[in-house]
Amino acid sequence: xxxxxxxxxxxxxxxxxxxxxxxxxxxxxxxxxxxxxxxxxxxxxxxxxxxxxxxxxxxxxxxxxxxxxxxxxxxxxxxxxxxxxxxxxxxxxxxxxxxxxxxxxxxxxxxxxxxxxxxxxxxxxxxxxxxxxxx
Length: 135
Known about the structure:
about 15% helix, single chain, globular, four-stranded antiparallel β-sheet
């Protein structure tokens, strides 16, 4: 099993079942942000995006997906019944930033669902670390 976490912003409506755990936030004007997380048989972030595309009727505006086959990723136990909060994304980047330090700092913080590597930092050349929370 692989683990995945990330967000997809789309315009339209959900028409099928999304297998991963999720928090859907209406941004306004028919625009939605969906935070996805959990375990999956899917093995690439591209395939996660394509699977999501099959579940909506509309246009994907942007996405930010990390999957354990491509990135360092740690999911934390989270009470799925309390997903009525706000999704918060924090990006951490700097010359000396590394995954293990951010993971140690963020693990155990209230509402933190995932700590994950993302794209390469254009400023520092290392990976941006993202912290996904529901608060």
